[in-house]
Structure formats: C-alpha cells, structure tokens
Design goal:
The chain is globular, with a radius of gyration of 20 Å. Helix 1 crosses helix 5. The strands form two sheets. The chain has a nine-stranded mixed β-sheet, sandwiched between helices. It has a two-stranded antiparallel ribbon with strand order 5-8. The chain has two domains: 213 residues, 3-Layer(aba) Sandwich (Rossmann fold), CATH 3.40.50.880; 60 residues, no CATH class. It is of the alpha/beta class.
Amino acid sequence: MKKNIAIFLHHPKCSVESVNGIVRALSPQYNIKIFTRHAVQDGFFDDVEMVIYPGGEGDADSFEYLLKENIDAIKNFLSQGGKYLGICMGAYWADAYYFDILQDTRVVQYIKRPQADVTHSYGTTVPIRWQGQYKQMYFYDGCCYTNGEFKTIATYANGDPMAIIQGSVGLIGCHLESEQSWYLKKNQQPHWHRGEHHLLLLEFVNALLTTPVQEAHFPKPVRGEYIDWIRGYLSLLDYVKEHQTTNVPHDYIDTKGFLLGQWVAAKRQSPHAVDEYQQQKLNSLPHWQWQTPTVK
C-alpha cells in the first residue's frame, strides 16, 4: 500500500509549478494530499508520513501569514515522528526563525556565501556534486546550511551543503522537481534533466521515509522498472510533440539511444504490467490505444 505525503500549496510562494513537479516525481510510489494556508480538518495528518513545503517566488518572511492556521498541527505532526521535506523556500522555513526544527543548524542564502558561483537572485542552473556525481541543477536563490551535524547528500561548487538529512528533516536548496518548461532560456535548455532529477528526488524521499532516523543512509535505489518507465514516457512525450501521434514504429530509437518503439510495443502487449498511474498517463496522450496499431 502506498504511503501518504502531504504537500503545501500557495502560489506563488509555494508554487503550482513546484508542486506539479513533486507530484510527477513521487506519485508513482506515494499517494499525494494537498493542503493550503487554510485550516485543515481534524485528523488530516493522521495518515500522513511526510509533509513537503516546496519552492516558489518571494521571500521567506510570509511564513507566519501562510502557516498560522496550521502551524500547531504541523508541529504536533513532527513531534509524533512525522517527516519534513523542505525544497528551496520550504528549506528556509526549517530554520530557527520559522519552524525551528533543526538542531544547531542554520539555513542561509547560498548567494551570500563566500566563493558562491551565483551572487544574484534569478533562475539559472548550477553545478552540483550529488553523492559524488556531477549534476547541473535548477537554482533560484536556494539555501545552504551551516553549523550542527547532518548528513550531506549534495554540495554546491564552493563546497557548501545543498541537500542534507538531519534526523526526520530533509532539506534541498535546488529544484529537483523542475520540469522541462522551466528550461526556456537557450543556455538552460541543454541542462534539462529529462526526469533524472525526479528520480533523485524520489530516492531522497525514500531514504528519509524508510530509514530509521538514527541510521539514515542514502540512497535507497529506485526500482529499475520505474527508471525505465520515466525514460520511456518522457521519450514518448517528445515523439508525440514532434509527430502528433503515439503510433511509434517498432524499430524507432530516439536521439538519446532509447528503444522507444520497443518500449511502446511492450506496454501495449502487456497492459496488465502497467500500474494505474501509468495507465492514466498513457491514456491522457492524444490517440493512445492499447491495441497495436498498423504503422505505415
């Protein structure tokens, strides 16, 4: 049975775009509940394993206005062992000025740190070292962390922590949930991650949720079939955009070397192996059909 995750939404502070990306990354393995600045019903968090506060536009000082109706419920949830994930804005809110849920650690602006490779607030991509591997990730005035003890998952170019786990709290400064529509500038388009960063976000959530706090380790491997699914689905979206059809020739290979024709054929031949979420995604595509069509 899928576990439940609750995501806070208040556009643009915790934006629709950020929430959409998180839902896309996590919904194959988790049920998603949405809550807003309005008071939740009693018991809303009773079946929830994690709350996520995403990123958006604006400064963190809107915290009290946005969260005052639910702050007691959130703090009670966390005191009962619930997990907290903050992304960009949500990571800032873990600081002592706001939720105050960290042990001796402060959340600060990366752009003001010594030797930061970005010094102004704007949307861009930055080099990140994620578990020893180089990635280029979407960044918009994200945070880093000073003092205290925590497990560092990723670092910025200057060595400052970008993603950390401290007990039941996970914080990420960059936008792993970013989608292709975020990469509109020509210099950003080559850095569109084609869903890879969604997999990293899913791994991060798995690690935070399924591992005892005292023994937190990372990463928890994402199932191979899900990696295959996200690669195939994103490739199919590109094909539909270009050709206006889901009828992919069996021998078609995309520009990344993915065997899209065989992937589509396998989904049609074994629909019982496609879960409900994947069925919904495929059925939403124009002219999708489960019977193998005749391709000329």
